[in-house]
Design a protein that fits this description.
Layout (H helix, E strand, L loop, with lengths): L1 H23 L3 E3 L1 H16 L3 E7 L5 E3 L1 H22 L5 E10 L2 E8 L6 H4 L19 H12 L3 E7 L3 E9 L10
Parallel strand pairs: 2-4
Antiparallel strand pairs: 1-3, 4-5, 5-7, 6-7
């Protein structure tokens, strides 16, 4: 019972964190490593039976961002990775690996999976609004289009993807380290 209550408390805390950050729609100090933990907690039910998750978090500085929006990007990529793994593996579990680090004035987050990967044609279209590879009724095609908008246009960052069909996919998210909307840390 005690273990269950701790888990419920963590889930409720994660949901409150997600909803509070999304409602404010304002930027402020954001800990990317904490955002990853919260996102994994919320995605756990979707990924626990098909995926192992390996997280390598280095000490990274707090960034100036809308935490709810960044968490939404993380959730979209992690759920898509889980879907790609389910598509490739029937009986075994696949792997999602997440790594954070920083260099110069940028925080980096790699999210990789060993799922089905993408063809070059699909990879070139994944950030297009309404493009999806999922069957009708299972995907809207909005997730990665929104992710691109949030990272590139709203946070002045970058999102790159590398994928090999049949082997897996890696997303690289780059976010500038800022204390406010205008100030870049040196």
């Amino acid at each position: 019972i005690s273990e269950g209550l701790k888990r419920i408390e963590a889930i409720v805390h994660g949901l409150r964190s997600f909803s509070r950050n999304n409602q404010l729609e304002e930027k402020g100090p954001y800990d990317l490593n904490e955002g990853i933990k919260t996102t994994l907690l919320l995605a756990n039910n979707e990924i626990k039976y098909k995926c192992y998750v390996d997280v390598d978090e280095l000490m990274i500085p707090t960034i100036y961002a809308n935490g709810g929006q960044i968490n939404q990007v993380l959730l979209n990529i992690i759920i898509n990775a889980s879907y790609a793994i389910k598509k490739k593996f029937e009986e075994e579990k696949g792997l999602i690996s997440i790594k954070t680090y920083y260099e110069n004035n940028t925080v980096y987050c790699n999210i990789c999976d060993n799922g089905c990967g993408m063809s070059e044609e699909i990879k070139n279209r994944i950030f297009e609004p309404f493009f999806t590879t999922k069957p009708v009724g299972q995907g809207t095609g909005l997730g990665l289009g929104i992710a691109y908008e949030i990272i590139c246009n709203q946070h002045n960052g970058r999102i790159d993807v590398k994928s090999i069909e049949g082997e897996g996919t890696c997303f690289l998210i780059l976010l500038p380290i800022r204390e406010s909307n205008d100030e870049v840390l040196m």
